[in-house]
Design brief:
Blueprint: H1 2-16, H2 35-47, E1 54-55, H3 60-73, E2 77-79, E3 95-97, H4 102-116, E4 124-126, H5 129-144, E5 153-155, H6 161-165
Parallel strand pairs: 1-2, 2-3, 4-5
Helix pairs in contact: 2-3, 4-5
Length: about 170
Amino acid sequence: MAILCIQMAHQDFYEHYSHYQTRLDLRIMDSEKDVIRAASAAFDLMKNEKVHAIIEPLFSEQARFVIQLGHKLHVPIVSFSATSSSLSSTRSKYFIRTTQDDCSQSQAIAAIIEAYGWREIVPIYEDTEYGRGLIPYLADELEKVNTRVPDRRAIDPNSEESEILE
């Protein structure tokens, strides 16, 4: 979906500003959610294709390594979906996050829970870096609004529906 939106925005921009001489050339590579593929594709784009920037990667796990590559090769990495707060600590001048990090999202979730007056919740989350990374921030924010977290449930991302329902 993100790729389609980027392509549509690219097309719309140049239809509206056809007089612009500078052109963006989109090169799309699919990492298939694999960290190694993402790093390999990013390295190829930076080193061989000589791109001037990379938009994405989709997942924080992929972003961590790609940000390091971008820093070493002086190529900006723009991400609109990598939310892990730990990525901020990389402090690379070549990393631009355009979305809220986990901490900010946790504040919003806690505000919703407070608005409903819920005093106890059990977070159910995907057992990935993203899911596990969000929970400490969420627990801290829930404590601030006097909501207890008596238990947590992680779901393996490879689980079948029948396993989840058990």
